[in-house]
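Hi everyone,

Forwarding the result from last night's run.
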Amino acid sequence: MVAQSGCLACHKIGDNGNAGPGPNLSKIGDRIPRQAIARTLVNPTAPMPSFKNLPPQKFSAIVNFLSQLK
């Protein structure tokens, strides 16, 4: 879901994705609580787009995946 949503165009997760302009998400679950990840996806800092209009299942899948990256 993360790859399908375009996250890897600006973020790196493990060996996948690009090193910027967004931060490396490889261990994001260690650094940021699940609720903060969800808030960032809804109200991000530019140039990141908002994901607030994703279907709820897709949004939850992304939040769950990112929060498990430790």
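Helices lie at 28-31, 34-42, 56-67.

Cheers,
N.
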